[in-house]
Design a protein that fits this description.
The protein contains twelve helices and 43 strands. By secondary structure, it is α+β, with helices and mostly antiparallel strands. Strands 36-37-39-38-40-41-42-43 form an eight-stranded mixed beta sheet, sandwiched between helices. Helix 7 packs across helix 8.
């Protein structure tokens, strides 16, 4: 899952003040696509292309003049459909991962008045506020209930009243948020008369209790509703609430509300119909339903099955005046884009070929083209392609081939302009504004090629390689050699691993080859730093590559890593007696498994926030990739590090935060017990009340670096010999 990967990268890169520049914060374009919005110096402005003329939309004079001091430093905004009002988001608070609670203010650009939304609600309690289509109302969630503010009458109406800490309207529980990336849980209908929303009932989900021993003399517990492997999920249903009457009609979606998930739901434009995706609990069957909000009827229009799993969709794009939609599927063995008729009877493959679509970038229906990211010949990179929207066309590479590496494009809705970001393992992220139709930069001064000329290439570049294991599997890898490398000497080697379906490690991006937890200069000190991408990683190598890990986490990925390491240790400059491995989260689990299952290869390991026992993790993630534990737990046991802890021979440092709501500290204690039982000596560092990122509290990040570095230098000494 991309979210898990982003959380991990942000956590470790923040430690060293690294700038992670990605396309995560997409541009907010104006409706015509010729300008974009920007928050600058406490103001909201538009920047018009290609001249970059700036115009203030909400200025500091208006903000300060309103007396709303809380508006300074607003974090996000929304523009009403008619462009006369702006919704500003400020005073934000974190809900698990992101700051999705806060205060909202409406700025009326005609009257220059600012009004606070939900005045009677607790401070920083509003979530996902958004304008109605006509801009006359604002809907939002507060304390798990839905509300609507009428901007003309200045009145507030409760659309739901049954919300509690466990009956959740308009947003989601922990598991849906973490594993389906679900947060905003309601949608205005196109006519603004109704709202479709999720209701999650987590009342039967048991609390996992974390203990805070440090913030008071007496300890207290922190409960998290957390469905473990084998436990029933929260029940889920979708309702349509009438804004005028506050009456909800529940959509009669077939199937048990507990044993099925609904990860995606949207209104079909210009209709009174809702489309939604339902996944069965094993997540190997996906059904698309269209529900009529007036007749309250539901029809299944598309069904897909897979022997392993099916990912939640990315949402729907409607074309051909709403008669067809765009959808991604792996049913032919590759991740491709299809256009599907509204009744599901006609399905047209758009992106034909033996390659994966990484992500969709733009549908240019006017010109009959679709843009998407792909890299058919190099799974470590990404480029912009386009093809005919009608299907049958050949993929056309848009990105210049003279710029090998990783590219991102944020394209304007009209397909005229784009912000292009280029990076590689040797080039830090560079951005340019360009005309997509001509592929020319708006200014030569700001072009990628001009900026590239000013980039000083590193003397010691990251090297990418391919290695074939004794199983006949070819794997991608990168390597950073020591500075002043001497081929005649033998150097210690440190492997960085993740290994699970949520993240790639071997990508041609800035930061590859950098170890942010090492408190010093690894190449200067004389370490070889390597990462290898095993089967099961979400690389664009086809369905079989990605889904071979089904029911095999902790086995196939671990064997791939170990067999690659075995080949690498044959290199003349690698010291077989100084071999270390480290990873975080799923990478921590892989580190433990490598150290325990292949003690003859790995001599030292540093495992951070690891899942030691797969039966302790959440049901959505683990059951998706390991199959139903209700049938058998054999695969779970066979892939869990605690099963092999008795084999430890090398040096282990285990690190975990006691306040980790994601991978519970329970994993650490179970592993510790197993190591003790087998009389295995190891080192342990627990961080009181720290979460999965181990970043909270004064000195935490610095201490983590010191601890990591000292252990590595002690048990895997640096330098060539």
């Amino acid at each position: 899952m991309n979210f898990k990967q982003l959380v991990f990268k942000l956590a470790i890169l923040t430690i060293v003040g690294f700038s992670l520049q990605t396309n995560a914060q997409n541009i907010k374009w104006t409706k015509d696509g010729n300008s974009y919005y920007e928050i600058s110096n406490g103001e909201l402005v538009t920047v018009t292309l290609p001249t970059s003329d700036r115009k203030t939309v909400v200025g500091q004079n208006l903000i300060f003049g309103s007396g709303n001091a809380g508006l300074t430093g607003f974090k996000d905004f929304q523009i009403s459909e008619d462009g006369t009002k702006v919704l500003l988001y400020t005073n934000t608070r974190k809900v698990w991962r992101y700051n999705t609670r806060g205060d909202y203010y409406v700025v009326d650009l005609k009257s220059n008045q600012i009004t606070k939304v939900g005045k009677d609600k607790p401070a920083s309690s509003l979530m996902f506020a958004k304008f109605s289509p006509d801009g006359s109302k604002i809907a939002y969630v507060s304390q798990h209930n839905l509300f609507v503010d009428d901007l003309s009458s200045k009145t507030t109406k409760s659309l739901t009243t049954d919300g509690t800490d466990r009956l959740i309207n308009g947003t989601f529980d922990w598991a849906y948020e973490e594993e389906f990336d679900c947060r905003d849980g309601f949608r205005w209908s196109p006519d603004g008369k109704t709202i479709a929303y999720w209701q999650i009932n987590a009342s039967k989900i048991r609390n996992f209790l974390m203990i805070n021993n440090t913030d008071s003399i007496y300890s207290h517990v922190i409960p998290v509703e957390y469905p473990k492997v084998g436990q029933d999920p929260s029940s889920c249903k979708v309702g349509i609430v009438d804004v005028a009457t506050a009456k909800t009609n529940w959509l009669p979606v077939p199937g048990d509300q507990v044993q099925n998930y609904i990860p995606r739901m949207e209104w079909i434009p210009n209709t009174n119909e809702v489309i939604l995706q339902q996944l069965n609990r094993e997540q190997n069957q996906s059904k698309l339903y269209i529900a009529n909000a007036v007749s309250n009827t539901v029809n299944n229009i598309f069904t897909e099955t897979d022997k392993a799993w099916i990912d939640a969709g990315k949402g729907w794009d409607w074309i051909n005046e709403g008669k067809e939609f765009i959808w991604q599927s792996e049913k032919d063995g590759w991740r491709h884009i299809y256009r599907i008729s509204k009744d599901g009877k006609k399905q047209t493959l758009i992106t034909a070929g033996n390659f994966d679509v990484i992500e969709k970038s733009l549908i240019d229906e006017k010109n009959g083209q679709i843009y998407y990211m792909a890299s058919p010949t190099n799974a470590t990179q990404r480029y912009l392609y386009r093809t005919k929207l009608s299907g049958g066309g050949k993929p056309e590479m848009i990105t210049p081939s003279i710029l090998p590496g990783t590219h991102d494009y944020d394209i304007s809705p009209n397909g005229i302009f784009a912000r292009h970001t280029y990076q590689s393992a040797s080039v830090p992220p560079i951005r340019e504004w360009m005309r997509l139709s001509t592929l020319n930069p708006l200014t030569m001064e700001g072009s990628v090629t001009n900026q590239l000329g000013r980039v000083k290439p590193p003397k010691n570049k990251v090297e990418f390689f391919k290695i074939k294991t004794e199983d006949g599997v070819e794997l991608d890898g990168w390597m950073k050699k020591p500075d002043n490398f001497d081929q005649t000497k033998k150097y210690p080697i440190v492997f960085y691993v993740y290994g699970e379906p949520a993240a790639q490690t071997v990508t041609d991006t800035w930061g590859a080859g950098v170890n942010p937890l090492y408190g010093g200069d690894m190449p200067k000190d004389g370490y070889i730093y390597v990462s290898v991408e095993n089967r099961g990683a979400p690389a664009p190598k086809g369905r079989e590559w990605r889904k071979s890990i089904f029911q095999n986490i902790g086995r196939i990925n671990i064997r791939d890593q170990a067999m690659a390491a075995k080949k690498i240790l044959e290199w003349s400059f690698v010291d077989k007696n100084r071999v270390a491995v480290w990873g975080w989260s799923g990478g921590g689990s892989s580190t433990l498994n490598l150290l325990f299952q292949y003690p003859e290869i790995y001599k030292t390991g540093i495992a951070i926030a690891a899942v030691g026992n797969q039966l302790t993790y959440d049901n959505i993630y683990q059951e998706r990739y390991m199959g139903s534990p209700l049938k058998t737990t054999e695969a779970y046991v066979a892939g869990s590090p605690i099963t092999y802890a008795k084999n430890l021979k090398g040096n282990l440092l285990y690190i975990h935060g006691t306040g980790d709501d994601n991978v519970h500290y329970q994993n650490a204690e179970m592993l510790i017990n197993e190591l003790i039982k087998n009389k295995k000596a190891f080192q342990m560092m627990s961080y009181p009340n720290r979460t999965h990122s181990i970043s909270e509290g004064d000195g935490t990040s610095e201490h983590l670096i010191i601890t990591y570095t000292k252990f590595l230098q002690t048990y895997c000494p640096a330098g060539g010999k």
